Automatic annotation (TrEMBL):
This is Sec-independent protein translocase protein TatA. Keywords: Cell membrane, Membrane, Protein transport, Translocation, Transmembrane, Transmembrane helix, Transport. Pfam families: TatA_B_E. The chain crosses the membrane at residues 6-25. GO terms for molecular function: protein transmembrane transporter activity. It comes from the Bacteria. GO terms for biological process: protein transport by the Tat complex. InterPro entries: TatA/B/E (IPR003369), TatA/E (IPR006312). Belongs to the TatA/E family. Forms a complex with TatC. Residues 48-68 are annotated as: Disordered.
Length: 68
């Protein structure tokens, strides 16, 4: 018995999915969706970088305590 390969996508599968997405959303909506996804990923990466910086937690607590 042959093993089942899960998620093996060929170029034909990708083309069919692309055509279906184009039919569902239209040519103008897809770039808007991709821009939104891209900006969301960028904001997420920026937030992760800020969390990883040493001392970033101290800056936010000092700013909050000085404004009170």
């Amino acid at each position: 018995m042959n093993t089942l390969t899960i998620l093996s996508l060929s170029w034909q599968h990708i083309l069919i999915v692309a055509v279906i997405l184009l039919l569902l959303f239209g040519g103008k909506k897809i770039p808007e969706l991709m821009r939104g996804v891209g900006s969301g990923i960028k904001e997420f990466k920026d937030a992760v970088k800020e969390e990883d910086k040493p001392g970033s937690e101290n800056k936010t607590t000092n700013n909050n305590s000085s404004s009170n």
